[in-house]
Amino acid sequence: MKTKECNKKVKLMFPEHREVIPQLRQDNPHFAKIFEEHAELDQEICRRELNPVSRINDDIEALKRKKLRLKDEIYRLLQDHTNSQI
Fold first, then answer.
1. How far is it, in rounded angstroms, from Cα 38 to Cα 7?
2. 39 to 13, 26, 45, 68: CA distances (angstroms)
3. Which residues contact 37 (CB under 8 A, 6 or more apart)?
4. pLDDT, tens digit, for every residue of 18-73?
5. How far apart are CA 86 and CA 29, in angstroms?
6. What pLDDT score does 28 carry?
7. In terms of C-beta density within 10 A (0-12 exposed, 13-18 middle, 19 or more buried), how is residue 61 classed?
8. What's the gap between Cα 25 and its chain centre?
9. 2: pLDDT confidence band, cut at 50, 70 and 90?
């Protein structure tokens, strides 16, 4: 997977909340922090997966689990925001 493709994945995450994400990143420092951390982890995972020596490393799996926990938290915050707007 190419780095450009990895960066694109973050932009395509949660398409149903595409309009809300920029607003939350600006208004909610916690959301902005975890969103950025998720993007950084995604780039690090992609970088390691491109390196044949790193592909064997169990650290990649740990990074993926951490990234998934962040994604779950991002989704929860998006849902909370959407529900509060109703």
1. 11
2. 11, 16, 10, 11
3. 70
4. 888 989 999 999 999 999 999 999 999 988 888 877 666 778 889 999 999 999 99
5. 22
6. 95
7. exposed
8. 13
9. very low
Could you tell me where the beta strands, DSSP code E, fall in the chain?
Answer: none
CA distances from 18 to 22, 54, 57, 71, 78 (A): 8, 33, 34, 14, 10
Reading the block at residue 56, the tokens are 């064997």
Tokens of 5: 């493709």
Determine the Cα–Cα distance for residues 80 and 36; give it in Å rounded to an integer. 19
- Where do the structural domains in the chain lie, given as residue ranges? 3-9+19-84
Neighbours of 12 (CB within 10 A): 8
Name the nearest CA neighbour of 36 among 18, 22, 20: 22
Going by the DSSP 8-state scheme, the letter that residue 9 receives in this structure is: H
Res 8: pLDDT: 61
